[in-house]
Amino acid sequence: MTQFAGLYVAVITPFTKDFEIDFEELREHAIWLMDSGVTGLVATGSCGEYAALEDRERDQVIRTLGTVTRGRVPLIVGVAAAASRMVAHWATLAKEIGASGVMALPPILYKPRWEEVRAHYALLNDVGLPIVVYNNPQDTAVDITPQRIGELARDFPNIVAIKEFSLDVRRVSAIREHSDVEIMAGADDLVIESLLAGATGWIAGMANIIPKESVTLLRLIEDGQLEEAWALYRKLLPLLRYDSTPGLVQAIKVGLEQVGRRGGPTRPPRLPLPAEDVRVIQSVLSNV
What we know:
Helices cover 45% and strands 12% of the residues. It has helices at residues 23-35, 55-69, 84-96, 114-125, 146-155, 170-178, 191-197, 211-222, 226-240, 248-258, 275-286, and strands at 6-10, 40-43, 75-78, 101-104, 131-135, 159-164, 182-185, 201-204. The protein is globular, with a radius of gyration of 18 Å.
């Protein structure tokens, strides 16, 4: 039985023009996403600019989303941090607020030995919540291969899923050969390919902007209406491709303004998108 099937949105952290967290908008944004039919939400992931948040702010964001989602949809908490003890700290908070699971990158600040990666997940496993391993070799120094996720899942029973973001869709079939973990599509611009290969869930970034369209796309795929799914997918692809770029958060916040919502600026070192990218995003959204 899958625990994290469906569409989970990696929620952005809205800021005011002074770069303070806009908690009112955070609550409203989460409610809008849930009202749009998404399966669940992910707090303080890459889209949530977790690395730009102070600890007290991150605590407040997690607690806010815990309160808003309670009784409505599952919440996964992103727990990436520079030190394994802090990863365990955020996971413990997630357990305290009743989150359904955590999403965890491997060590992020240097290229660790495999024994260190194992120790990192062993500490997290001890917290006792279901773990979605986040494989993102684009942004970390670690690639958790299909063989390695199989090893982790065998040794640590709380590892139940992987957000696969290697950008190699062949990984989906290979992971299925080496383990029984759930596979969650991690790249928006590979979601059809990943689901057809055997992924059962999708952790999406651009669904912050287009939640209803993303829900429709997932349902079309699940219902086998592939001609309609491909047509919608190709229409959205110029936007979805930003999910696999360093400018994904800026792109989401530009898109939110375009659809009449507030995302605010991104905190430095993230700077505004170039004008050409803004035009691409506006063009896609004007035709959705």
